[in-house]
Design a protein that fits this description.
Number of domains: 2
Structural class: alpha+beta
Helix content: 40-55%
């Protein structure tokens, strides 16, 4: 196998690893909750500590995030640390932090 074939094989392996990371958990693995904005509304997986699921889902829906946007929370010490997909603007990230008290 020549160097070009090895380079192509390595690039394919990296692309497959990135796909698997994004598709099967990645950053959201182990999250307490994950909100995903879908065309029909907001899907919630897990439970939001200290908030009713309906109220939290309603808050996320009112943020008018783009389809595909995600917000998730991991346990951090005594609280929850929020994470956001790259398509959530900074001002909306701060609104969510204020709402969830993080």
């Amino acid at each position: 196998m020549g160097p070009q074939a090895l380079l192509l094989l390595a690039a394919g392996a990296i692309a497959l690893a990135v796909f698997a990371f994004r598709r099967f958990g990645g950053a959201t693995a182990g999250a307490l909750f994950v909100f995903t904005v879908e065309a029909r509304g907001v899907r919630l997986e897990g439970t939001v500590p200290g908030k009713s699921d309906a109220d939290a889902r309603d808050f996320i829906e009112r943020m008018e995030l783009p389809v595909g946007a995600k917000l998730w929370g991991h346990r951090s010490g005594e609280g929850v640390r929020l994470r956001f997909s790259s398509d959530v603007p900074d001002d909306l990230q701060q609104r969510a932090r204020n709402y969830f008290g993080t």
